[in-house]
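Q: How would the structure tokens look for this protein?
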Amino acid sequence: MGTTPPAAVADRVLVAGARVAGSACAEALLDRGAAVTVYDRADSERLRALAERGAACVVAPEFDPALLDGIGQVVLSPGFPPHHPIAAAARAAGIEAFSEPELAWRLRGPDAARWLAVTGTNGKTTTTTMLAAMLETAGLRTAALGNIGVPLIQAADGPFDVIAVELSSYQLHWSSSLAPTAGAVLNLAPDHLDWHGSFDAYAEAKAAVWRGGRAVVNLDDPAVVALAKRTDAETVGFTLNQPEPGQFGVALGFLVDYTGPEPVQICSVGDVRPAGWHNVANALAAAALAREVGVSHRDIGEAVRKYLPEPHRNVVFAEAGGVTWVDDSKATNPHAAAAALAAYDSIVWVAGGQLKGVDVDGLAAQYAPKMRAAVLIGEDRALLADALARHAPDLPVVVLDGGDDAVMTDVAARAAGFAQPGDTVLLSPAAASYDMFDSYAHRGDAFAAAARSLIGGEAG
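A: Here is the predicted structure in token form.
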């Protein structure tokens, strides 16, 4: 660890964006005596509070590059892509730009917590919260932070031994010195290509999680394996198959650590929640990271058994008439939806939203045989309907219009009409939610509320 060199953070910093992470960064910089300018397109209570603390706050519909005069560094909202005008202006002026996790890393004190980091296209939050549960069970002071929970910057010098950190490709792109004790790449599939420009650039951003020298690698994902071949980090792999020496895997129905001289059973596959092999993989990744800081196999197994899934991630919220209702609204891309579709035998699929330019043909081809019917909503519902028509022309498909919570009442009714005992009604949209809802959580809540209202007292 050690102290951060004084030059790591400039004396004059521009913070672009005054929402939760941006305002937290500005406050942290002000606490350390930096001269801070905060830019946002809209006024807010947070901006006014920062102004009272001494920040120079600028509200304007368009960014003026003159704001960079005299600025040493720029702290960007992680969502700002490399081609954003602020990022482009900073690059043209030769000014370093990074985002909140990188700033938190630079501001760590001499006794700062170790970081164990998790990234990947899907499963990040589940793995990170599983990991935090393992660390807590071992008696370590910990928290799940990063893309979840409070801003990392607020915990940079917090009372922690080890923190479990979820990092997105955006956050990793805007980092340069951040180097966790160990990092895991769970999986890689096309996503956020409009932001990164290409799949290769997206994957390279993810690889930054291995900058600390210890890499946890999904051996079942060819793209992750190919990425790992280009890193200098020491690697430990995990697989859903029987592990070879030096790997984590599954043998005789148990999660196994075979990094020592003999395989050690951690817990039963049936202990992992939420259900599904993708979450067994998440648990293996979390276990590999936990072992990097000495957590015992017993503590890891106990944590898996007591772990409760995060909302909107393949969560059963009701059962009625032999039909199970599942909210997997967090599945905002086809790769995530595939994991949920693989977990059930007979499905009424509720899907749709903003596909972000990602192809769904393969998803339809692979999983349509498991479907009893599909109910489609959202901006790109026709693309999903076309894919299903190509690969399952006899599948009943309902395409619904509507752009608010009310459509979910119709969704629940249509899905219930198709479902038979033994079926799962699965909201796993394969698409983003912002065309109709405030967030994937809003979408999932609306679906669950409509379903519970429909099935009434039978809800589980």
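Confidence is low (pLDDT under 50) at residues 1-7.

The chain is about 35% helix and 20% strand.

Upvote if useful.
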